[in-house]
Write a structure and sequence with these properties.
By secondary structure, the protein is an alpha/beta fold. 42% of the residues lie in helices and 20% in strands. The protein has helices spanning 12-24, 35-45, 61-70, 86-94, 107-130, 162-173, 181-188, 198-211; strands at residues 4-8, 28-32, 49-53, 77-81, 99-102, 137-139, 142-145, 150-153, 156-157, 179-180, 221-224, 228-231.
């Protein structure tokens, strides 16, 4: 069965354009005209991906994204906005959006982004299915359960956004290896984010707040000046 896409946009012309092009690409498409309707349709209809406008009546896209992630709804989200605003972009991704596009855009590019997100999501799901039940990665007091999409520190479960978890897992899989910001952008966000490495730095900062006893002297996620970051076993004397 084809994947179901929910388009949430209050501009009828854009909604119709996206619906037509996504259907032509083989997707089933539903639409919603405001954030509240979109939020309810996600909970009721369980789409495979959400194309979500930032500026919406009743409930804006940021709030929709935030509420869904709080409800542990991890449906991939492609966020749209008419504002080329870095703050909105970083905030949207911090709250759990998977990708971000600025209006005006090419419908063909939207379809390509949708396919890329779904392809990445499927690969992650397949990798998790192939892992043995109960497999875990342990680094010091940090424990990651890839197949359960969970991470613990000092035996307490961490509250992580999807991107924070993916970033932490990627760092853990390459423990001890220096990873550049561009490598992390490509691996976790799946494409070159226009060189916007601030997104990586913001997510690293948030991870440190959750797993470091002293964020000014991190013992897990180390900054390698001029190169990037690496996750390593904490030394006893640290």
């Amino acid at each position: 069965m084809s994947k179901k896409i929910l388009v949430v946009d209050d501009e009828q012309s854009i909604s119709t354009l996206l619906q037509y092009n996504l259907q032509q690409a083989g997707f089933r498409v539903e639409t919603a005209e405001d954030g509240e309707e979109g939020y309810n349709k996600v909970l009721e209809g369980k789409p495979d991906l959400i194309v979500l406008d930032l500026m919406l009546p009743k409930m804006d896209g940021i709030e929709v994204c935030k509420k869904l992630r709080q409800q542990k709804v991890m449906t991939p989200i492609l966020m749209l906005t008419a504002k080329d605003d870095e703050f909105d972009k970083v905030l949207g991704l911090e709250l759990g959006a998977d990708d971000y596009m600025t209006k005006p855009f090419s419908p063909r590019e939207v379809v390509a982004r949708v396919k890329a997100i779904l392809r990445r999501t499927q690969i992650i799901a397949q990798e998790n299915e192939q892992e043995e039940d109960g497999e875990r990665i342990t680094i010091g007091d940090l424990k990651i359960l890839p197949d359960h999409y969970e991470a613990y520190f000092n035996q307490e479960q961490l509250e992580l956004t999807p991107k924070e978890f993916e970033l932490l897992l990627y760092l853990a899989k390459y423990k001890g290896r220096v990873l550049t910001r561009d490598q992390l952008l490509s691996a976790v966000w799946n494409y070159d984010f226009a060189g916007d490495t601030r997104i990586v730095d913001v997510h690293i900062s948030h991870l440190r707040e959750k797993i470091e006893h002293n964020t000014r002297k991190p013992v897990y996620i180390k900054t390698i000046r001029g190169l990037g970051y690496k996750l390593e076993e904490p030394k006893i004397d640290e």
